[in-house]
Amino acid sequence: MRLGVTDRMSVSGNKPAATRDWLGLKKELPRRRRYLLTLSSFLLPLALWSLVSYVPWLWHPLVRVTSPGEVEAFSTGVEVPRADFERENRDALAQHFEPAQGFRVNPPYLPPPHAVGRAFFSAFRTPPRLPDEPWLYQSLGHSIRTIFWGFLLSSLIGVPLGVLGGAYRFFARLQEPFLEFFRYLPAPAFAALCVAVLGIYDAPKIAIIFIGTFFQQVLVISNTVRRVDPALVEAAQTLGARGWPLLRGVIIPGSITGIYTDMRILLGWAWTYLIVAEVVGTMSGITYFINQQARYRNFPNVYAAIAMIGIIGLGIDFVLAWIGNRAFPWQRTSRRAGRLLALSQPAPASHYRVGAVPMFRRGAVRR
Amino acid sequence: MSTPDPKTVPIRDLLPDYREQLPEVAARFARIRERPVILSIRGLEKSYGHGDARTVVLDRLSFEVRRREFLSVVGPSGCGKSTLIRIIAGLDEATGGEVLLDGQRVEGPGPDRGMVFQGYTLFPWLTVKGNVMFGLKLRGKSKKAADREAFQWLDLVNLEEFADAYPHELSGGMKQRVAIARALANEPRILIMDEPFGALDAQTRAQMQSYLLQIWKSVDVTILFITHDLEEAAYLSDRVLVMGANPGRIVELIENPVPRPRRREQFISRPFLSLKRRLAELIHADGAAEELKLPLTMRPCAEDSVE
Ligand SMILES: Nc1ncnc2c1ncn2[C@@H]1O[C@H](COP(=O)(O)OP(=O)(O)OP(=O)(O)O)[C@@H](O)[C@H]1O
Ligand SMILES: [Mg+2]
Questions:
Q1: How many cross-chain Cβ pairs, A to B, lie less than 8 Å apart?
Q2: Which CATH number fits domain A136-334: 3.30.70.100, 1.20.82.10, 1.10.3720.10, 2.170.270.10?
Q3: Whole-model pTM?
Q4: How far out from the chain centre does Cα B67 lie?
């Protein structure tokens, strides 16, 4: 029997279409699915962590002794590898001693989600053990201050230099070779120097963040400015713009969304330099807190503090994205979100122009 | 010798010569010829590379455009139309010859030559009104004066109600109208348009053509218009400059025999068809693009052949 047309349609039409709805190449998903996926991207790792933490036979390589029985090597509360526990008990039984009792646990460096969750709140309320130690919120505040000053100083110099380098070949040729060289020097390599010159308190830390950010910043922003749609620059020129009005009226607004995105990414990098910066001189900030807690073997607090860095970073980015969407109303960005919050990509040149000017006319755009 | 049966004679043989002009058309061209020259191209040459690698893109072009004239440029793809007007606009440099605007040598881009590109090139960060005001502000007009003038130009292209919209909220045709308003707001001596309607669908394009004719009628501006659409050239222009490729050169500068005012019904009038035929002859003879055959072998999978 031949398949009727309608039969065939229902066979080939429905099911693949459903998969295609989820996995359309470069196709945006409907709002509800986006939220669902955003949630899942956090829930999946959490689920994995919960499984390992709460299902005893998945990993749990240690045994916590609840009563040592007559096994001499054990005492109540110690955690021993499972193999040792079983061997000792076998020996005990062979000699008709009372075996030890215990249950399987994960190593202390992998606390279960609820412990970390509790630490999230208790860490803020727990006073420091030593009188001159900072509270957690003080440590966080210190870290944020360090980042702020490092990033601000870098941006105050780096953004104007980047714009100049992007707009004028003169500045690009003058500054980029050196910057390219310098950006390969790892910021931590300057730690000793910074301490020698700037002392042991906050100044060398800010300097490390500055060094880590600045050189990349100038180069990345120059590159973004260079990518301003040349057709827009030409259009402005035929309207009589040149020199400063051209820079201010077209090149800067044409690249401002790109620069803003760059700044968000660079700020993320600055956070990674923070951890290096905070061990320079006297250890400080969140790194100090994490180190102390690890020393006390209070691992839930360690994880909570690490997660807090992520949450603060994400939160700041969230705010910046929100501000960006309001500051640049001509951009239709966040709806194209690929991440939790899409970095607002500057629309590609083809977005504005249909008939592209051939590449060779755009002037050699470097990189 | 018997006269051929009119039913079997191909229509194109019944068409008049494209050089035949009705009295009113001839009179109009006589009047145009008396107007001052606005744009004068003299021995314009553009080549890339040196020695053996040298390719000549424009080979000593010379022509003149008179005040308030509508001149179209047509030619096969790659013949150098865009190169020509980019040089006129000052965006590219010629390797020889010169461009004179009102007798002055052109160096670099300037507001006296307005440009409308095929890609809309509106500033996406400015509203429609902001785009139109861009040139006005550069000329030092006060915010208020620029604002008022911008509205007048938007009125002309019938887009006042979109004054506060951003370009991405407009359709292609609307964007191009804004681009025209933006260029005209500078009151340029000549408006240069490079395939401005090339990216639009047929209907919008037809609409834009009649818009452009109306604008041209109500504004004192000379238009240099590039297109690859022969009907568009015949519909809009006073004269049509036909270019040939390899190297880019002038093949013929034709006076359009179609009387004004133009209407779309004229598309099937004798002068229109005779001009169109001539343009097609020139361009196809030169480009010979249609003769190119792809090296395809047939892979018929059904009994019926398409041809
Ligand atoms: N930098 C360059 N180096 C070498 N050849 C070039 C360069 N720029 C342009 N050309 C050549 O100049 C010729 C003219 O290009 P142009 O864009 O002016 O053609 P066009 O008539 O506008 O074509 P179209 O109708 O497709 O827009 C082309 O053949 C192109 O290959
Ligand atoms: Mg072209």
A1: 98
A2: 1.10.3720.10
A3: 0.79
A4: 16
